[in-house]
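Tip: read the tokens left to right.
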């Protein structure tokens, strides 16, 4: 049986001080213990009736102090009994019976309340059944979880030990999760990606499962003087895959975004060419992309040409190609999307936050379809030099198959800068079902928080990250126990990985939730990271396979002590005892965003 905790129940306001009297002195309303030992164990009953049984005996009718079934006891008038120091109105003590659960079917979402009714200071505890296991609704880890057999045993022995057990079946029309405002259900129907592993989702997924990385030496003359010359670069010139005239009007990040968006659009089953070709109302479709800078090289190049050639040497396209919103606007132009073209800039959490914003826009009816994710192209000499000056970049070189980016590893020493784009097609479920679309998973919710701790360093307690994790699970109408996998942010910085592991322990307790970090494969794609990692998380749910974490030959001792279960070596099957996967993104300045995807 669970132990009791102090309650706000008015009953224990006056201390219970046991003392011994004769049975003849007992009157209705007295607190009665069967023995001094039971008084020590806080097992008290309220005397409901006293009736003379014979000249020498009295019949006492007693009820557990917080409610329960009546018991009768015949005692000699002179028998010494233990009573409390105060009286209770017998009419205020409810008559309660425990539910018999032997033949009752128990289902996920059912609740069981347990009250140690003989203890004046007890409060009712509630357990909820999730994935075949009962856990307290107040939280707790696996040590506080109980089985169906234990719950049935509680009900069977309840009366013997002074406990009331009540079964609350799951309401037929209500979810098992906490009540949250709900709009339309949002699903993922298309995926697109351009990454250091290649162009296309197929190249990304094969590379993740095979444990390959796309981090390369930077060989251009502009990088020669840099202290760090490795990055996760896309191995194909994106301009070569686009119409030449259109490509000249896009920065590199926008080129990535358009390629990824086209792939996602086609993968969702829409006709090439955009909304009109697909028979969609362009005003009911939106774009939501994350970016930090977009493509920093355009502004740097314009400044260089100004100094070398004067004002006439600066292209009129410099300004429109510099702004971070260029990727979203070019996707909007390319697919003729007029509903909205949103850009989210929230450091390295930009892509994930952009997806979250799109979920809400569909949920509450602003649009029916959205292309959401992130795009970034910041592998430039100035950005690389700045990160190196911060001592944020890894000093490991590209050595054979070993990645220099080593998330959660004992020898991690910083992140590897990267570029690319990841885009998802999000859709209202009824819209997707009506056209017979293939559904990867549900985009079930998201969470957002801020550390308010430091301009660049994470809060070492992980409290801000934990807050975003909890919000993401709650927004999905779920519980922490429903989470079976986490796609970690884990950039391979010493402080960042440890803070994330600390947050995971704070939310999931000692329950081991398998974790994968993809930055060993890709490097850190900055504002695009959340988009690409969301694509991978959707594929993890769809294929029920968790990719391994590349670069982590040995998990850091401090992270192991926190119980973080890092998937390494080879892909692993997704556990079946839950339906949620989380994708984490955390950025400079304390931006924390977490996406929740659900198995369908």
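Filled-in amino acids:
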């Amino acid at each position: 049986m669970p132990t009791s905790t102090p309650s706000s129940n008015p009953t224990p306001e006056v201390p219970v001080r046991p003392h011994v009297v004769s049975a003849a002195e007992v009157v209705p309303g007295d607190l009665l213990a069967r023995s001094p030992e039971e008084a020590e164990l806080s097992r008290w009953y309220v005397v409901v009736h006293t009736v003379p049984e014979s000249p020498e005996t009295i019949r006492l009718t007693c009820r557990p102090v917080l409610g329960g079934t009546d018991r009768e006891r015949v005692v000699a008038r002179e028998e010494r009994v233990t009573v409390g120091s105060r009286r209770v109105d017998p009419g205020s003590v409810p008559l309660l019976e425990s539910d018999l659960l032997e033949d009752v079917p128990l289902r996920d979402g059912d609740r069981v309340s347990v009250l140690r009714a003989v203890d004046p200071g007890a409060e009712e505890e509630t357990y909820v059944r999730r994935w075949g296991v009962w856990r307290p609704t107040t939280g707790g880890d696996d040590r506080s979880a109980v089985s169906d057999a234990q719950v049935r045993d509680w009900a069977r022995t309840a009366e013997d030990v002074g406990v009331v057990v009540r079964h609350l079946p799951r309401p037929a029309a209500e979810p098992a999760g906490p009540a949250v405002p709900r709009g339309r259900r949002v699903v993922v129907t298309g995926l697109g990606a351009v990454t250091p592993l290649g162009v296309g989702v197929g190249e990304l997924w094969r590379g993740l499962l095979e444990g390959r990385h796309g981090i390369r030496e930077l060989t251009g003359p502009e990088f020669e003087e840099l202290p760090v010359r490795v990055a996760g670069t896309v191995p194909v010139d994106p301009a070569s895959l686009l119409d030449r005239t259109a490509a000249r009007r896009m920065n590199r990040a926008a080129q990535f975004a358009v390629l990824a968006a086209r792939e996602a659009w086609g993968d969702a089953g829409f006709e090439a060419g955009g909304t009109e070709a697909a028979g969609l109302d362009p005003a009911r479709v939106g774009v939501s992309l994350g970016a930090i800078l977009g493509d920093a090289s355009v502004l740097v190049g314009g400044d260089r040409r100004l100094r070398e050639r004067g004002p006439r040497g600066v292209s009129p396209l410099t300004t429109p190609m510099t702004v971070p919103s260029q990727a979203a606007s070019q996707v909007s132009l390319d697919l003729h999307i007029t509903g909205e073209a949103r850009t989210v800039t929230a450091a390295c959490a930009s892509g994930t936050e952009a997806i979250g914003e799109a979920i809400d826009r569909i949920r509450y009816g602003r649009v029916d379809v959205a292309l959401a994710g992130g795009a970034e192209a910041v592998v430039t000499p100035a950005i690389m030099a700045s990160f190196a000056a911060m001592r944020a970049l890894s000093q490991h070189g590209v050595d054979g198959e070993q990645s220099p980016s080593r998330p959660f590893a004992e020898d991690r020493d910083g992140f590897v800068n990267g570029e690319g784009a990841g885009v998802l097609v999000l859709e209202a479920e009824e819209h997707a079902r009506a056209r017979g679309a293939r559904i990867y998973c549900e985009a079930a919710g998201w969470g957002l928080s801020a550390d308010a701790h430091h301009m660049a360093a994470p809060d070492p307690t992980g409290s801000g990250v934990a807050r975003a994790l909890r919000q993401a699970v709650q927004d999905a109408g779920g519980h922490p126990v429903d989470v079976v996998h986490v796609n970690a942010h884990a950039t391979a910085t010493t402080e960042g990985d440890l803070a994330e592991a600390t947050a995971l322990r704070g939310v999931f307790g000692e329950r081991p939730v398998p974790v994968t970090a993809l930055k060993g494969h890709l490097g850190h794609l900055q504002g695009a990271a959340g988009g690409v990692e969301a694509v991978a998380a959707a594929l993890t749910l769809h294929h029920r396979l968790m990719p391994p974490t590349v670069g982590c030959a040995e998990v850091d001792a401090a992270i192991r002590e926190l119980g973080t279960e890092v998937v390494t070596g080879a892909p692993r099957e997704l556990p079946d005892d839950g339906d949620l996967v989380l994708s984490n993104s955390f950025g400079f300045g304390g931006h924390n965003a977490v996406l929740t995807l659900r198995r369908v």
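Confidence is low (pLDDT under 50) at residues 4-12, 173-180. The radius of gyration is 31 Å.
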